[in-house]
């Protein structure tokens, strides 16, 4: 069975967004979890998908020497690498309302049973990209197998907590700890279901 692996960049107090609705402490959104060789599908919630698709499409369409329209920053080489990977990788969106997407490899799932069925299909592992609500609900449903977190040395204060809607206790098994630049830490946990 394929594993469902979530990867999130969070503050040390567990926030994935600040009060403004985004993680202003994250410099780039490249895939820093080491997942690309291990996955062949991505899963997102409907709320996150529209902005995700727009952001990564803009990177592919942008001239390398021009700043991105939404951030004003030049494209980071690691982000360009992820955008190329993402453009050719199937994406699944859990949504009861969405019916279309610009990326032709996007498919819509309507229930947790659809996600369980996806895990049973042959293939590599699946990257659960978020957002917070889908991540929490899939942890609660026992569908998440592994969490890869990059923890930033910051107390974000007000904002959206990654695990704010998790109600039951879930035991985690530490698999790897790695210090990163700028005081960040990479943590890999197995979810014990």
Describe the protein in words.
This protein has 193 residues and is an alpha/beta fold. The chain has helices at residues 46-61, 77-88, 112-120, 132-140, and strands at residues 4-11, 15-17, 39-45, 91-94, 106-109, 125-130, 146-152, 160-161, 171-179, 185-192. The strands form two sheets. The chain has an eight-stranded mixed beta sheet with strand order 5-4-3-6-1-7-10-9. The protein has a two-stranded antiparallel ribbon with strand order 2-8. The longest helix is centred in the N-terminal third of the chain and has 16 residues, at 46-61. The radius of gyration is 16 Å and the shape is globular. It starts with a strand and ends with a strand.
Quick take:
With 193 residues, the protein is an alpha/beta fold. Helix content is 24%, strand content 30%. β9 (171-179) and β10 (185-192) form a beta hairpin.
